[in-house]
Amino acid sequence: MTMTTSFLIAILILSVSTVQGADYDFPPAPSPGSTVQGGHYNDFPPGPSPSAQPNPKDFQNMKQFLAYLVIQRFKRTITYDPLNITGTWVGTSICDNDDINTYRGFFCDTPPNTTDLTVASIDFNGFHLGAPTLDGFINGFPDLALFHANSNNFGGTVPNLLGLQYLYELDFSNNKLSGLFPTNVVPLSGLAFLDLRFNFFQGPVPPPIFLIGYEALFLNNNFFNSSIPANLGSSPVEYLTFANNRFTGPIPVSICNTSSTLLEVLFLNNKLSGCLPYEIGYLRDITVFDAGLNKLTGHIPLSFGCLSNVQELNLAQNYLYGEVPEVVCQLARTGNLVNLSLSDNFFTALGANCWDLIHNNVLDVRWNCIPGLPHQRPLKECAWFLSLPKLCPLVPYMPCEANPGRQNTTCYNDWASHFDHNPPMPPLPPHASFNQLRKGKAN
Ligand SMILES: *[C@@H]1O[C@H](CO)[C@@H](O)[C@H](O)[C@H]1NC(C)=O
Ligand SMILES: *[C@@H]1O[C@H](CO)[C@@H](O)[C@H](O)[C@H]1NC(C)=O
Ligand SMILES: *[C@@H]1O[C@H](CO)[C@@H](O)[C@H](O)[C@H]1NC(C)=O
Ligand SMILES: *[C@@H]1O[C@H](CO)[C@@H](O)[C@H](O)[C@H]1NC(C)=O
Ligand SMILES: *[C@@H]1O[C@H](CO)[C@@H](O)[C@H](O)[C@H]1NC(C)=O
Ligand SMILES: *[C@@H]1O[C@H](CO)[C@@H](O)[C@H](O)[C@H]1NC(C)=O
């Protein structure tokens, strides 16, 4: 085995063991105590005094000496350390990976083309460390392959990481990072996993993010406010989350081109608009599709009946209308569908086999306009919505129809040319006004 391969394999093992715990799920909310604002300044003894400063001879190699300097400098900026992690960042044995009480969070390996053992991954998950910035720290480890910092209190912006040629997993989730999307990670072509969840990033998301070989791209719970770049379909990831931001505009029709890779996508709670694209029906492997709480409109395209692997399909709290297609409800019998959430829309009818799903608690169609069902919208709301122009056509095309069970993977663009996917929106009132109406009715 070459050194390069063993390096990458060792990193992969560490990576798998740390990512599994997260299960591609939301990280826990920050605990109330873990705040920097409390002014919990570190009382722990600082590193060796300048006079006791070790020199390169005390270390296994020069790389470790340089890593030592970076770690000690970072240690002096730590503002919060409830688990006394930095108490273990002492001495010259940086790479004693067997001793968990030595340099906790740092793991060493031998990078390609050298025999020097050095810091190859940093895993601070759950350490609750606070520091005003990571600049000068992460980018101080030229051989770094992994940086995991879930649930800490790191602030500032993401430093320029372009010099880190081996970096392939970057997890900043649940911190206090801010600024624009860190474009300094975009050209890191080796990066497989980027997790920015639960931070304070804002502004637009640049199109090149979808050109990179990420396994997972987690952007949820930030303040991104652009449209979702039209080249979404170029993304090779399996897990994609846009949830809980301020994204606007339509779901890009190019999503069809992710059909052989995408397993879960969360658009939940943004300001997405336009017709629900029938191209979503190409996502033959998708298990979770969640576009609830947006401003999407139109019919549910019949192509959704091709989502044979989907378990959770959430389209609740949008402006969808028409009939809930029979072919979609059928997925509960012929496919894997267990949760079809369509509440708070403007559907007016249900496909014949949809009624049973209500009784089985698979289908939620409360707060729609379906005659004969309890818990529907007031007539006034339904009449108002019915009077608006409907600009999205019902697309009957089903990519799996000719070949049932085997999804057609070639994105077929003929339908796309037939209509405008993002017609101008009718003047829809915000959801709040519906609640107002409901309250008025209840009183
Ligand atoms: C932190 O850990 C170091 C090293 O184990 C120890 O010497 C020190 O007393 C600890 N500090 C606190 C406040 O527990
Ligand atoms: C390692 O050395 C080989 C052969 O000299 C070279 O082709 C390769 O680019 C080097 N890799 C790195 C990461 O420096
Ligand atoms: C998006 O957010 C940025 C930064 O907060 C702001 O300057 C910009 O005006 C916002 N753009 C839109 C379209 O809301
Ligand atoms: C999907 O990818 C193909 C080949 O890369 C491209 O020609 C096509 O335009 C893409 N479709 C969409 C809807 O973007
Ligand atoms: C179904 O999904 C909706 C939306 O994601 C969720 O709120 C609801 O709790 C789920 N229902 C069940 C029974 O899991
Ligand atoms: C996929 O759909 C296209 C367009 O309808 C069709 O020409 C092609 O034969 C289909 N392929 C399969 C394998 O069904």
From TrEMBL:
Record InterPro entries: Leu-rich_rpt (IPR001611), LRR_dom_sf (IPR032675), LRR_extensin-like_regulator (IPR051582)
Main location: secreted
Keyword Magnesium recorded: no
Subcellular location: Secreted
Keywords annotated in UniProt: Repeat, Secreted, Signal
GO cellular component terms attached to this protein's record: extracellular region
Region span, Disordered: 27-56
Position of the signal peptide: 1-21
Entries under PANTHER family matching the protein: LEUCINE-RICH REPEAT EXTENSIN-LIKE PROTEIN 3-RELATED (PTHR32093), LEUCINE-RICH REPEAT-CONTAINING N-TERMINAL PLANT-TYPE DOMAIN-CONTAINING PROTEIN (PTHR32093:SF128)
Official protein name in the record: Leucine-rich repeat (LRR) family protein
Lineage start: Eukaryota, Viridiplantae, Streptophyta, Embryophyta, Tracheophyta
